[in-house]
Write a structure and sequence with these properties.
Elements lengths: L2 H8 L3 H13 L12 H8 L17 H7 L2 H4 L4
Helix pairs in contact: 1-2
InterPro entries: HTH_IS408/IS1162_type
Organism: Bradyrhizobium barranii subsp. apii
Protein name: HTH IS408-type domain-containing protein
């Protein structure tokens, strides 16, 4: 079955399927999976080298707490 067919069946992008197949190959996983392989171990093996990209943001992140207060229903529906 091709990555395109798998993606269409699952409703995800072909590139997502290709990425996951590459991760499985790199982790040395093959189908069928071992019966004693838990979800946590599988996730750790597939995403061992994945991490948060460090960098800078072009814009400062908003103060989410004050924004949440501004968007409360009682505040948002008040007439001007």
């Amino acid at each position: 079955m091709s990555a395109r067919e798998i993606g269409r069946t699952l409703g995800v992008a072909r590139s997502t399927i290709q990425d996951n197949l590459k991760r499985a190959s790199t982790a040395g996983l093959a189908w069928p999976l071992a019966g004693d392989l838990t979800d946590a171990v599988l996730e750790q093996r597939l995403f061992a080298h994945a991490g948060v990209r460090r960098g800078f943001r072009r814009r400062r992140e908003p103060d989410w707490a004050s924004l949440a207060c501004e968007l409360k229903v009682s505040v948002a529906l008040r007439p001007f």
